[in-house]
Amino acid sequence: MQIEFNGPIWFWKGPAPWYFVTIPEAQSSAIKAIAGLVTYGWGVIPVQARIGQTAWRTSLIPKDGRYLVPLKASVRQAEQLAEGDAVAITVHVGP
To answer: 47: buried, middle or exposed (CB in 10 Å: 19+, 13-18, 0-12)?
Structure first.
């Protein structure tokens, strides 16, 4: 399954700070429908993601009925992204 969406980058200031983009509700529902087939535990789902020219492997994290895409520092640096920037993301769900 491949999905494309836009969203703002936000920063989680928890004990292990990280940057994320939240997948919109409609696409999150579609992912949730196949989650049992693709999760490797705790509801976490492996994906191949792309922003601009930068692709990376990561895992979607379920939160409040939606999914979060973690943005590595190397991705943010390569695409010159910062908190609050709106990004277009393509995500391919599956191992």
So the answer is: buried
* Phi, psi values for residue 7, rounded to 5°: -170, 160
* Beta partners for residue 59, in sequence order: 46
Give Cα separations from 57 to 46, 48, 91, 94 (angstroms): 7, 5, 10, 10
For the ranges 15-19, 49-53, 57-61, which has the lowest average pLDDT?
A: 15-19
Residue 67 to residue 20: CA distance in whole angstroms: 10
Q: For the chain, what percentages of helix, strand and coil (3-state, to nearest 5) are there?
A: 20, 50, 30
Domain range enclosing 65: 2-93
**pLDDT, tens digit (0-9, with 9 covering 90-100), for 21-52:** 999 999 999 999 988 888 887 778 999 999 99
pTM score, whole prediction? 0.91
Q: Is-contact 83 19, C-beta < 8 A?
A: yes
What total of structural domains would you count in the chain?
1
